[in-house]
Amino acid sequence: MSNPPQTGYALGKVATIDEKKTIEDEHLAPEEYIPNSENVTKHEFDTLRHVGDRLPITAWLVVIVEFAERWTYYGTVNVFSNYIRAPLPPGSTSGAVDPAHRDDGVAGALGLGQQKSFTIRTFNTFFIYSTPILGGIIADTLLGRYNTIMLASIICLVGHIILVGTASPPSLAHPQGALAGLIVSILIMGVGAGFIKSNVSPMVGEQYQGKLRKETLASGEVVIKSPAVTIQSVYMYYYAAINFGALGAISASFLARDHGYWAAYLLPTCIFLLVPGVLWVGRKNYVHTPPRGSVLVDCVRVIKMASKGKWSLNPVRTYRNLKAADFWEPAKRSSYTDADRPKKLLWDDEFVAEVSRTVKACAVLIWFPVFWLCYSQIDGNLSTVAAAMQLKGTPNDLIQNLNPVTLIVFIPIFDKIVYPTFRRWGWNFTPIKRIFVGFLTVGLAMVYAGALQHFIYAKSPCHDNLPSECITPDKYPNPAPINVWVVSGPYILVGIGEIFASITSLEYAFTKAPKRMKSVITAFAQFQTALSAAINFALTALNAENMFGWLFGSFAIAAWITGFLFFWTFYDLDQQEGELNQIGIGEREGYADEHPAGDNKA
């Protein structure tokens, strides 16, 4: 079998155009066209402005699915903090606050305290971001993305129904039973939501099937309709849908305070019915990716073959060997003759390039636990900070909805104004640069939070005796004289950090993964949140109100140090962004399609 042709442009070489394509300019050498484009030359690619293409209706349908699923998720977990931490308000059986004391009253139910609340919420985060790995493998190898999401929606719905039932007044009369129902529902919903998360993200990206092409605008300007820019927009609006859904927590906060937790959990359960409904409506129109077997085994074989003999007891030598320019050569088919080629080498050179790109993507993603540690503070601890401030009728867990509001407001601004302006100026704001800025931004959010906590302690009537639990003699809250909306700063800054870093991580996982590993690599990106939750478990002692100042300050320093180390580590990778995006998109569909699972032919 002869060696397959390489995608020359992807490797920085001269590409060859298909003989069937028409050459519009007789003075233009055929080899200058970019593979898999509609007659776009490398010169045009480098000099013309890149713009996004129109998104297909099926992409918007998947966005609606994500909106409904996230409404249900955030409309449930965003009130977990008070539900677990605070006791039933005086005279309440449902968790609701008496109307006469709603100005500064806090809803509650189980009364387990801040640290137990933190532990349960952190476990929920860890579990729900661990299960996507299994969901990704099942989708890529057995059921396909569409069927996996449909199955997961049924599982998730069962968990929500259990939660509603165990949050009812008769159940809350027996706190241990209500706690058991909460744990069971967390486990069931974690499986369902996790399976959905690993598959909805790549499913929305693959709805766009356009190619690189030229187009003349009404102004007469010739531009490049770029799949890379289009995918960036896809994930911007996908993330906006997540945060539109997160606004469901606004209604949950008021429903919990005014009517009790059974009502707060019932509304998201009803909204969730949109997930299987919308999926069913668009079933004949989606771009479906069928299960095609796993390439994980062959990915491991490629890495093992490439790294053979590269390990040493000397860590410096090992590092140099693994970073060597020719590291992947021993795993390439072109490195062997037909006679000496290993029997297990069933792939072509393009597949090795895809594995190399995937490894680099995973190396980028493993830095994200520090980012999600900072994010986790707005997910719970800052609600406790808000509970120590003057609420003036605002539920303390309502403020965290400023984070999705920030994203909803700023995502269109970044997509339509900020990023296009950068491209017009010729500044390529690559994923590595965006992630770097995201780390700096969340670090700044933690500085703000730490300074605010200092002022709350100074002004609280209880001073150092846990301001969030400071009460009057008749057992009603006695807050620090600071308006609760002052706490909005960290939520806004973290939201902007997510635009730079979190959205980019989803885009990066989708664009860098081979076709048969997109769900798994997306799940790997989301698993970084689970790792941050595991780190948070180790920091349980610091997640106490009297330690918040140290906690926020430490996370700020960690985010900034990580950001600069990240950019220094991946500076060279940043320069290769255009080349990496071209790997595996030529006329050849890649090893994944040439060698289906179980094919042992060389």
From TrEMBL:
Location within or outside the cell: Membrane
InterPro entries associated with the record: MFS_trans_sf, POT_fam, PTR2_symporter_CS
A single GO cellular-component term on record: plasma membrane
Membrane topology: Multi-pass membrane protein
Superkingdom, taxonomy of origin: Eukaryota
Record carries keyword Hydrolase: no
Principal location listed in the UniProt entry: membrane
Keyword set, alphabetical order: Membrane, Transmembrane, Transmembrane helix, Transport
TM helices/strands, residue ranges: 126-143, 150-172, 178-196, 235-256, 262-282, 435-457, 482-508, 520-542, 548-571
PROSITE patterns: PTR2_1 (PS01022)
Entry GO MF terms: dipeptide transmembrane transporter activity
Xref: SUPFAM superfamilies: MFS general substrate transporter
PANTHER family in the cross-refs: OLIGOPEPTIDE TRANSPORTER-RELATED
Family stated for the protein in its record: Belongs to the major facilitator superfamily. Proton-dependent oligopeptide transporter (POT/PTR) (TC 2.A.17) family.
Protein name as catalogued: Related to PTR2-Di-and tripeptide permease
Organism classification: Eukaryota, Fungi, Dikarya, Basidiomycota, Agaricomycotina
